[in-house]
Amino acid sequence: MNIDLQGRTALITGASKGLGLATALRLAASGAHVAIVARGREALDEAYEAIKEKAGPRRVAAHVCDVTQPTQIDAAFHAVRAQLGPLDILINNAGGHALGHFHDITDAMWSHDIDVKLMATVRMTRLVWPDMIERRWGRVINVLNTFAKAPAAGTAPTAVTRAAQLALTKILSKEGAPHNVLANALLVGLIQSDQIQRLLGHNVPRDGGDFAQQQIGNRQIPLGRIGEPGEFADIACFLASDHASYITGTAINVDGGMSAVI
Ligand SMILES: NC(=O)c1ccc[n+]([C@@H]2O[C@H](COP(=O)([O-])OP(=O)(O)OC[C@H]3O[C@@H](n4cnc5c(N)ncnc54)[C@H](OP(=O)(O)O)[C@@H]3O)[C@@H](O)[C@H]2O)c1
């Protein structure tokens, strides 16, 4: 399927690395103007150059922004809007590993997880929403994990935060639908990224190495391997496109069949 995003403008949070970067590259290659935000300047600059290469004549923007900080979200959004114009596509992707047992999770850990995932999504979406509604075209894609629907022992605080984002996605889909603004969630299992490299050790081979093999065994990834960032980017790009014009308010597992629930 040839996905054409010419004339569309996308903002992806947490896109200097991993799944966010893979998606930014994919959207740029499909013709979109692309803006990325993350905290670290160096990785952001490298990502900017890589996206520029794919984007050709299309415009690219990169801004330092910690999505836990409302003033930084505000500043980044307004800078991007001034550079690229109103946004058509928002991918709320920034986040990170936060898995533990309930009794070990402090208030600070709960607050951080809620800020970086739920509140960042609330705040950024609130800013892009009016333009999408007014222009009668919009795509909000929230990157969550499979625990959003299938919480288990040892998955606090992330399973709770992701479930809240799942509820938010549904609300956005219901309120956006009359205005042709669509909202969906992607529920990630285990996909190769900087985060996964940090967790599993460096230079993880395609089959995931020993630790991942154990995870594959324990967590039963039926496809028998960790996912590739490009496999995630493909579905994100599809949801961002006109091809997904009748899909809203849904959550898609991108997990090699790992989740116990649909
Ligand atoms: N990969 C997986 O298997 C997996 C599984 C389940 C869920 N997910 C979710 O998918 C998303 C992407 O994960 P990933 O594996 O690609 O992670 P990653 O490789 O660690 O990349 C995370 C990106 O987000 C940025 N970021 C982190 N905290 C941020 C903050 N407070 N403000 C702005 N940017 C921030 C990072 O840059 P800086 O550090 O420089 O800010 C980086 O660009 C996350 O929400 C993650 O929880 C991934």
From TrEMBL:
Q: What organism is recorded for this protein?
A: Paraburkholderia aspalathi
Instruction: Give the domain of life.
Output: Bacteria
Q: Mark the transmembrane ranges.
A: none
A Pfam family that this protein carries is adh_short_C2
Q: Which family does the similarity line name?
A: Belongs to the short-chain dehydrogenases/reductases (SDR) family.
Q: What is this protein called?
A: NAD(P)-dependent dehydrogenase, short-chain alcohol dehydrogenase family
